[in-house]
Amino acid sequence: MSEVVKSYYDENAGQEWERLNRPYSGIEFRSTKHLIQKYFPEKGRVCDIGSGPGRYAVELLKQGYNVTLFELSPKELELAAAHIDRLGLKAGGFICGDARELRGMENGHFEAALVLGPLYHILEEQERLRVIQEAYRVLKPGGIVLFGYINSWGALKAGVTEFSESFRELDKIYDYLTELKLDESRGFTECYFTVPPQALKEVQTGGFEILSYAGAEGFLAGTQTEIGRLYREDRVVYDNLLQAASETCEAPQFRDATEHLLVVARKPAGE
């Protein structure tokens, strides 16, 4: 992964910890936790690949999983270690490195894995496949993994309210109907956007069986402004919407048009 991406996360480590506390990002957080509870084994070793500052690692540790954090940004890994220590929790390990080569990870060691960030930032397909294949390598046969992608179709919907000025040229709208590769001048850093059929094909090419996929924001995708208002003005409605969106995040009528795509996959049991 590039130095541009590493530098971005080094400089924004604290912001990444706080991001999932925001009213709209809270939908993504809750949906992801819903899928973890539904598909992960009840106990075991989990590899959090692209762990960031450790928000999901903390949740998993609280539930009794043995979690190893693997992260590109040393600043984010330091922040994760500090939060885990402050909470009196103990991780299985902290490893700083590139997700395309999981150094220090044994073959077939983990019952489950998260890969929620790395695939957002790798522009070339063969390099993304290396990440997927490395996750495959470190999982036990039958192991479960949750892959995260940024979804172009959902980004288009969100863009109507979040960055509509970029649509002054008609072609820019149609760009979001397929994959997008953005450098740091066009994205928040180097970014890769894809669409659900392509993401599913990529995960299968890496050797995995697809169990399900979900749209993290569910039916609330593209409603950031209104969700923020409800969070401030009517917390009961906000909480109800959050619960319903997370519990229905796999529904076909919602999942293809959300900003964050979550693919649930399994390493075949016989391998």
From TrEMBL:
<dbReference type="InterPro" id="IPR041698">
    <property type="entry name" value="Methyltransf_25"/>
</dbReference>
<feature type="domain" description="Methyltransferase">
    <location>
        <begin position="46"/>
        <end position="143"/>
    </location>
</feature>
<protein>
    <recommendedName>
        <fullName>Methyltransferase domain-containing protein</fullName>
    </recommendedName>
</protein>
<dbReference type="InterPro" id="IPR029063">
    <property type="entry name" value="SAM-dependent_MTases_sf"/>
</dbReference>
<dbReference type="Pfam" id="PF13649">
    <property type="entry name" value="Methyltransf_25"/>
</dbReference>
